[in-house]
Every structure is written in C-alpha cells, then in structure tokens.
C-alpha cells in the first residue's frame, strides 16, 4: 500500500475524532450551544417564517443535531418562541446599559431614541420576526411567561426619565410612558420594516449613510419636540 493511500486513511480516520471533539465541547457548554442555536434560528425564521424554517438547516449551521435542538427547545414552535424571548431580552439588557439616570432628561431621551433607532437598523432579522408574529396576531408570544416581564424595565425607564423631565420643567405634562414608548418604537421600526418599499416608491436609498443619518436625526427631533415643554 503506497504512502498516498496511508495518508488518505489517516485523514479519513481523523475526521470523526474532530467531530466528536466538537460535539463533546458543545455538550460541556450548553449555554453557548443554545446561544448559537438561537442566533442562527433568528435568521432562519426571519428569512422563511415559522412554517418555512427548517430545523435541519439550523442544526447543520450550528454543527449540532435535531435531537439536541429538540432537547433544548422541545419543538420548532418552542424554538421560535425562545427566539422571540431572546430578541426582547437582548434589547432590554442593552437598554439597561445606557445609564439614562446619569444624564439630564433631554440628553437621556435623545440617547434612548438614538439607541432604539440604531438597534432596529442593525437587527433587521428581529424586525422581520416581530412582523411575522404580528401577522400571527401574537399567537406564540401570548404563550410566553417572560416577555411581559422582560419589557417592564423599558417602561419603568421612560417613566423615570419623564418624571425627571417634568420636575426640571423641560417636559410637558400629560404624556403616557407606554404611548411614548410606542411612538419611539414605531418611528424606529418603520424605518426598517418599510425601507425597501419606501425606497422603491420614492427612489431613495434608505441604506445610504447620509440618508440614515438624516432620518435618525429626524426621528430624534420628532420625539424631542413632542415631549419638550
């Protein structure tokens, strides 16, 4: 037997060992495995929807198995709900790092609007999944035991920010924190959800840096002028 055949056999024999090493590594770090699955699943659900998404594709992209995905999430629907929950959790966790209480009210409100705009702009898969869930009339989100609690800090932050602005005399009275949150979210969400159709209709590239910057400042000014006294 020549050296080339020996080399091929050695190479062929090495592959299962490497694969087992990866599987062992993932088994020993379930948190990382689950995070990888959720990350890939977000894109899969965003691109194909719940019905079109394939667990096989998610398993292949994460170098795991369907069995492992079902072990962690129970079903494709369970994975879809986990993706929704993780998307909201990640956004709220980042919001908490803004330290809005350390800024004057107007500066804090500007920072919150900028963050929301940037987050939505940078996470189009998140926008698509939320759009899809709205088409389902919130059917799967209604089954979540955590999403409502995940979003409580967002409203609490706006309530505190608004109260400080009222006390300082820079915000006008009579506004509702949930309504203000909806306004900020709507303006930021629309910028991503409708940019393709809007761009085609009005012949404007909503991904161009100068257009993004102008739109971002327009959203900020819209909210500030609505809230300030």
TrEMBL record:
Provide the alphabetized UniProt keywords. Answer: DNA-binding
Q: Which InterPro entries match?
A: Homeodomain-like_sf, HTH-type_TetR-like_transc_reg, HTH_TetR, NicS_C, Tet_transcr_reg_TetR-rel_C_sf
Span list, region Disordered: 1-30
Which residues mediate DNA binding here? 54-73
The answer on whether this UniProt entry bears the keyword DNA-binding reads yes
Show where the HTH tetR-type domain sits: 31-91
The yes or no answer to whether the keyword Nucleus is present is: no
Superkingdom classification of source: Bacteria
| One Pfam family per UniProt | TetR_C_29
* Regions of compositional bias (Basic residues) in chain numbering: 1-12
For this chain, one GO molecular function annotation is: DNA binding
Name of the protein this chain belongs to: TetR family transcriptional regulator
